[in-house]
Structure formats: C-alpha cells, structure tokens
Amino acid sequence: MYQSRLDKCFDELKRLKKKALIPYITAGDPLPDLTVSLMHALVESGADVIELGVPFSDPIADGPIIQRASERALNQGVNLETCLNFVNDFRVRNKVTPIVLMGYMNPIEQFGWDRFADEAAHVGVDGVLVVDCPPEESTIFFDKLKAQNIDCIHLVAPTTSEERLQKILGEASGYIYYVSLRGVTGSDKLNPVDVSQKINFVKKHTKLPVAVGFGISSRKSVSDIAKTDADGVVIGSALIRAMEEAGLEGGSPIDTVKSRLDDLSKGLSEKR
C-alpha cells in the first residue's frame, strides 16, 4: 500500500512520541539563491516537514511580515515555476523530508491545474495547502493532486463548525492545519486553552494529524502547543522576522534561521 512521505513522517514521530516541527519560509526571500540552502538549514535544525510559501501579491491570510517577504520575492522575479525548481534542487540532496507548498489559487490557475499537478509530483512536492481554495469549489483540482499522490492540506479555523469540518475532512489528507487564532499570520494572541479544546474537537472527527500554526512566535508558545494533543507546530513569521532583523545588521540569513529555529524547537521537548 502506498504511503506518502508525510504519512511516514507522522507515523515515525508518533512512534517516537514526538511532535512535528514544521517551519515555514517564503520561497525567494530574502534572496532566491539562498532558498534551497535555507531549506537544508531548516532540516539541520530539526525540521520534520517544510512549508514553502509561494509568493503572491495579495496574501489575504498573511500578516505584514509574510506580506513583506512575498513582496521581496516577487520583486526578484520568483514565481510558482521558480518554487518548483527550488523543490527540485532540494531533492538532489534530500529525498526524505516532506515539502508542502503553501499559497493561493491564482498562481496555480495561471500555471494550469494539470501542469501544476504533474510538475509538482515530478519535482517531489508532497502536499499543497491553498489558503483560498474551499472544498466545495475545488474537487476537480484536488482530484488532480490526489491522482499524483500529492496530499491536500486544509485549514481549520477556530470558527469552523462541525458541519463545515466534515466537508473539509472529505477532501483532506496529509494533515490538518489548525489556525490557532482569529486573524492573520504573525499575531501574538495565542490562547492555549482554546486551542487545546478545538484540537480535541477536530480529532474526534479524523485520524489525520493536526498541526497548529499562526501566533506561534516564542519558545513558550511552542511549549504551550506541544502540551496539547496537537501532532505538530508550524512556525513561520518568527523566522522571517528574525531574518529581516538580521539583514538590517548584516547578519547571515542561514545562521539566523538555524539559531532561531533551534531556540524555538526547545519548546517541543518541555514536559507537561
């Protein structure tokens, strides 16, 4: 029976009783030539899965930090095809770590659904998370991905009803991305009690792993999520902010990302 890289990853982590560390970076930021090296640096710092953001001019779910990252990448000519090339180059050295492309539908529609599914599978993309892609309107697109053994990652929000959750789960595979707060990426109003209750609600309806993102920007917030029944923690804006600040001081983006992720990941091992 076929088992995806994501399935293997989460199964192994479950066996080891560990949570998945899932960092996010925007492809092409701060420099396109650094993206593949940054991806390898994330793995060296403990990443179990990498979410690679596809830059887009109107990222409605993203806060100002990731918006700036998208602008920097777009200004340097990075597009969806570039992102696929990054994954292809990453796979030369790493054929194990799952890669999830995270972005918006517009670039994929311009690229072409069939072409995207074919090329994403060819370069080694394991999952796709399209923020503005409701399941009611996207069955054909999801079927094209599934035909290529690419997992369809879906968002679940604090406001998601049970009825809505069932629709989402009908299309979901790989893992569920639970949005920990009402707002955009980079917010800092995490409520661990609310998150824990919602994770339990989601897990009553699915055996898929649940990863939590949005609002996780400190070792304490990582630790708070690690103490819930979540299966993974997504960290994005905190890493991009660290690279921004280091860039202003002439620091190395790669060293900065490794240091910041090393620090944040310590929250995963703090005991209940």
The structure class reads: alpha/beta
Unreliable spans: none
How much helicity do the residues have?
40-55%
Tell me the number of helical segments per DSSP (H or I, 4 or more residues long). 12
Order of helices and strands: HEHEHHEHHEHEHEHEHEHH
Task: Describe the global form.
Answer: globular
- Largest beta sheet, briefly? 8 strands, parallel, barrel
Integer count of domains: 1
Radius of gyration: 17 Å
Strand content: 5-15%
Assigned CATH superfamily: Aldolase class I
CATH class: Alpha Beta
Q: What's the arrangement of strands in the largest beta sheet?
A: 1-2-3-4-5-6-7-8
Give the secondary structure arrangement, pairings included.
Layout: H1 5-16, E1 20-26, H2 35-44, E2 50-53, H3 64-75, H4 80-93, E3 99-103, H5 105-111, H6 113-123, E4 127-130, H7 139-147, E5 151-156, H8 162-169, E6 176-179, H9 192-203, E7 210-213, H10 219-226, E8 232-235, H11 237-248, H12 253-265
Task: Give an account of the 3D structure.
The chain is an alpha/beta fold and 272 residues long. The protein has a single domain, classed as Aldolase class I (TIM Barrel, Alpha-Beta Barrel). It contains twelve helices and eight strands. It has an eight-stranded parallel beta barrel, surrounded by eight helices. The N and C termini lie far apart (36 Å). 47% of the residues are buried.
